[in-house]
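Technical note accompanying the year-one report. For the benefit of new consortium partners, we illustrate the data format agreed upon in the data management plan: each record pairs a sequence with a structure-token string. No post-processing was applied to the example shown here.
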Amino acid sequence: SFPTRRSFDLGKGEKVFANYKKGVKISVNDRVYRTKNAELLLKIKQTLLEPKKRIPASGTFTAEKGKEMSLRVSAYDISTTVFGGLCESAKNHAATEEEVRKTLMRTGESEFFFDSLTLNMESGLFLNVGALKNLRRNALAELEKKILERSERQSAKVEEKRNGKNGASSAFLMEFSASVMTQEQLEVVLRDKRFVRIYLHTEKLGFEGAFQAYKQVKDCKKEAWLIFPFIFRDAVERTFQREAEKDAGLFSLAWDGFLLKNVESFLFVKELYAKESKKLPQLALDAECRIMNDIAYEFWKDKVSFFTLPFELTWAEMQKTNFYRECELAGYGKVPFMVSAQCIQKNTKNCVYADKREWGKVLCFRDEKKRKFSAVNVCKYCYNIIYGEEPLYLSEVEKEPDKFPVRAFRYMFTTESKEEVSGILKGNLTVRTQKGHFYKGVI
């Protein structure tokens, strides 16, 4: 009779079937010796010997005197930020990076382990170990909750498709960020709860304006990033160096990160923070750095936290890279066609550098094909940024992020008024938009 149980469950006297190689001579009453039970050994290995498979996560811990400590954790393209107790100056023993890292890395029986952990800590702080543990526990619990919620939505969408229904909610949780050039734009953006990261230009805000804007962003518990200029020539570098030498200048602030548009600014911040032995904030490359392929990615991946996808790549080309899911996508904004040191204002009228009321003035002109362009005077750094009339708007990425799984969707605000920004964020665009090279290549 045929046995009904698996081989490793059989008892003495029960029959078992075995496979033998072709040509093996077997006779009745031959003895059979079982030297290894492969299925039983596999079961033991899986249940007892192999460690629990956990999910790799990345984390960023931030601690600044007088503010709540925070831990941002990410896995499966999902991120969350949790805040803990206030950071105070240490009276006796100040927390070291080694101690904090050791505490946060102990994820224990959690579903996660940290494969990367960035610490942005001020020196001389007292950080309670219990508070650090609670921060880690709460952050990972919130991350697990978000992942499960997405999984449930995915299952619901599959079920809806089976039943012939179209799911209204998206399964992919994409972040939203925004860059602003003016105080008015910032005020509108800060009211939108979607944005987790705010990028601040200094072209119009200036250093003092960016300093105050930083405080507004942090008061709203959002990430504050400083955008470096398009062109970082010697004169501009000297301007930033003077700002860095101020005790209460821009670089005295605990920025979450710097968004860089060129190699010169990358070298500047690396040297600046190394010289002062300060913890370097996160670095990210903007679209102008054009990380177009895996070779460029391999060069930069250990030097910066993430990238912005170039305007020149199509969506199909983006998907062929190994890194597009880690990148931000500039989904709305006027794309800079040209950055020119030949000032249109100066060449056609007169230089207005001495009159700060004229800084940031927008000049409109047309080319031979009657296409309209705007040239923004960046008197602070002595160049023009030239934009086309129609802003880029990839509405499909914003509305169906599960089809376009990138790290974040960025709104880039440049010449828009306060009212225009408000309308755009509500989906009420009053101008014609374009898709750039998202579907059609450069050539």
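Partners are asked to follow this layout when depositing records. The longest helix spans residues 129-162.
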